[in-house]
Amino acid sequence: MQRAVRMSKLGLVCTIILLVFSMLAAACGSNSNNNNNAGTSGNAAKNDSGGTANTSTDTSNNAAADNSATETNTSADLPEVKLTWYFPGNWPQPEQDKVFAEVNKVIKSKINATVDFKAIPFGDYDQKMQVVIASGEPYDITFTAGWINNYTQNVAKGAFLPLDDLLAKYAPQTSASMPASFWDATKIKGQIYGFVNQQISARTPAVAVPQSLIDKYGLDMNAISAKIGPDTLNLLEPFIQAVKKDNPQKFPVVGIDPDFFNVEAIVGINVPGVVAFNDDSLTVVNQFESDGFKTFLATLRDWNAKGYMNSKERLSKKTDDWTDGKAGKFIFNIGGAFKPGGANLDSALGGEPYAEVPAGTAHLTTGGITATMMAINRNSKNPERAMMLLELLNTDKDLYNLLNFGIKDEHYKIDSDGLMIPGDNQQGYNPQVPWMFASNFLANVEKGMPADVWDQTKKVNADALPSKLLGFTFDAEPVKGEIAKATAVWDEYSRAISLGVTSEEKYNEFLSKMKSAGADKIIAEMQKQINDWKASK
Questions:
Q1: Average per-residue pLDDT for the chain
Q2: Which of 99, 106, 30, 117 lies closest to 74, judged by CA?
Q3: Handedness of CA 200, 202, 205, 208 (dihedral sign)
Q4: Where are the beta strands (DSSP E) in 371-492?
Q5: Which of 40, 139, 182, 301 could bond to 178 as cystine, CB 3.0-4.6 Å?
Q6: Where are the alpha helices (DSSP H) in 412-452?
Q7: Helix, strand, or coil here: 308?
Q8: DSSP state letters, 347-411
Q9: Is the pLDDT reported for residue 278 higher than 80?
Q10: In a 3-state reduction of DSSP, which class is residue 101?
Q11: pTM for this one?
């Protein structure tokens, strides 16, 4: 009896032990499965539906170490979402919907998302985004910079989401691909709100001229290289006169760009407040009251009076664009950024061969770094997936080139030397904004460009003179109302100013309205923040 009891007890113990081992085995199996799915995609599935990321797993290291594993898991593990993305450019393109559909097939397979591509013409983008942001219309991603859909102003309005945590978790490769100084340039109050598209960041405007006019009228491009500024525009007048004599329909285009005036704009050229590149004291001045701007304006007035500007024809357009260039109306175009291979882009946009030289000396500036960025809407329902999309576009070369250049062997081809050439149907999709969507360094090298064009571009960035304000970003919050008013004044007068139509009386009226809008208060706040930044260095 005692033996039977002992045997019964022994059997019970054995049974318990077996049960414990079974539970441990099941737990190990479960943990193993969880660990396999603990990368970016598994956590993103939770975060997309649940809002703010909250996990103890280090997803960034997993994603950086094994991107292919992330791609394998992503589509299966993530719930499907639809993202909305606003961006400007040379839109519409005849076959953009066809290309966007192909892009979406790839995005769907990689991160189980599709994108509603809101492609807006350059001239309409600012106003469109003002309406979208003010109305609270849902969207996820938008293009932003100092020159369009103003970055600083939108951060002050609370329109954009801080990206620091999202970058670390969902875009580790892009984050690591740039110097820390580039990300620092985007920071406002210590936080990153802009996702940088790498491209030419060392800025001086390009002087782009049709090669046919150079050849016919004997313009010495070397003689004007790095010598064109507000005080020296008249170096180009003999060339303008010669061209206009035979071609009255043609006109010069001169963009109003801070780099052209050798200054760094604190918010943008449209808002009072710049610091000269050569000013060690970092004194903020009102560019519209400066001698350089007034000299520039006097030259434009003179050119308009002489009939060079065709201002009546152009005044009704918000901005000049390459539609007129392709129609053969440009004598030259000063603007953008001079860069290796840039003449190829000019030639594609202008529909004929162009040559270009730098207007001045390139400087690496905060504004140059932040000239091409994406931001995520603070109210986006899927910020994690939006960041995953930006990472995908910056790491998947084929996808990037599909979105930029269209369908291979249709809109573009690759020749035997590995260089990109026009496809038989290039006219169906050729937006010519390769810096718009992601890192320009992923772009196919076009025939006619140096084979090492992207290495050359990186070298230009590395060798450029750094602005004395590099790394400073302005917090516009204390004067956001004044900046909004100043921007409205600029919008009212800028087109007439750029065409030389504004009389001295009208320009004084413009200055008076800028002062009433709060120009002095804006500049004082800029100076205060710069002084504090200097003291903290």
A1: 88
A2: 106
A3: negative
A4: 373-376, 412-414, 420-422, 465-466
A5: 182
A6: none
A7: coil
A8: HHHHTS-EEEEESS--EE-HHHHTTSEEEEBTT-S-HHHHHHHHHHHHH-HHHHHHHHH-SBTTT
A9: yes
A10: helix
A11: 0.77
Residue type, position 423, single letter: G
Q: How many residues does the chain have?
A: 537
Question: Element (H or E) spanning 309, and its range?
Answer: none
Query: In angstroms, rounded to a whole number, what is the distance separating the alpha carbons of residues 296 and 232?
Result: 9
Taking the CA of residue 234 as centre, how many other CA atoms within 13 Å lie in the half-sphere pointing to its CB? 9
Asked if 325 and 331 touch (Cβ cutoff 8 Å), the reply is: no
Cis amide bond preceding 92, omega within 30: yes
Tell me, what's the pLDDT at 442?
98
Residue 216: its pLDDT value, please? 98
- CA angle 205/209/210 to nearest 5° reads 150
| Block residue for tokens 């939006």 | 386
Cβ-based neighbours of 358, under 8 Å, separated by 6 or more: 204, 205, 206, 207, 225, 226, 338
Residue 280 tokens read as 């060690």
Position 37 scores a pLDDT of 33
Q: Which amino acid is at 140?
A: D
Helices 397-405 and 383-395: angle between axes, nearest 10 degrees: 90
Structure-block tokens of residue 42: 């598994």
pLDDT tens digits for range 293-311: 999 999 999 999 999 999 9
Measured over the CA atoms of residue 451, residue 430, residue 347 and residue 226, the dihedral's sign is negative
Contact call for residues 301 and 500 (beta carbons, < 8 A):
yes
